[in-house]
Write a structure and sequence with these properties.
Helix 1 crosses helix 8. This protein has one domain: 3-Layer(aba) Sandwich (Rossmann fold). About 30% of the residues lie in helices and about 20% in strands. By secondary structure, the chain is of the alpha/beta class. It has a six-stranded parallel β-sheet with strand order 2-1-3-4-7-8, sandwiched between helices. The protein has a two-stranded antiparallel sheet with strand order 5-6.
Length: about 230
Amino acid sequence: MANYVLVHGAWGGGQSYEKTAGDLTAAGHNVVVATQRGIGVRQPELHGGITLTDHVNDVETQVQEAGFERFILVGHSYGGMVITQLAARHGARIDAICYIDAFLPQHDQSLWDITREHEHNWYIDSQKHTPGLIAPIGGFDFKEIPGHIGRHPLLTLLEAVQLTGEEEKIPRRVYVFATNFPETPFTPFAERTKADPAWEYHEAAAGHMVMEEQPEQVRQILLDLAP
């Protein structure tokens, strides 16, 4: 039996992991679908001062509350930033780390540093009337759905990850790249991990929501990480 910690991306919530969490639980494993302040089910906590560190602390607290001494850490999209910083704190306790179409920063990089002018313009323009709070990228007719999708705090995208060397203690590293995502910002991370023998690389014939479009593939990849 393994312990899984699933970290969702920006704007949305843990509902993106509903099928994955159910599959892992049905296979006899323990699962925490982590929540992060201000987004998903925690939208009522949203304010412009929330940082990446806040989200990392949120996940860290939930790991502690679950009593997981060792665990498998999974992040989707923006969740890649969160799990990277968490790995820099607790790498020796992590059996495997899996990035599902996610940002993969290096030391002292923020999400802003590893995105393009297109994303930068959106991050700034979409918070023109909601300072510090960004609408979902491309969501020109965005309407908030409580507990499901809402604005995201800008500061989480501006704070840099600080690696410590602890993350190097993780024995298995996996990257899953969605091949049907037009204008994907994740190609550099796919290329980097595909070329690195220290990584296990997978491609999914899916858009960005890989867990929903290729649930069986995600299920098998994650089950194969159990010690």
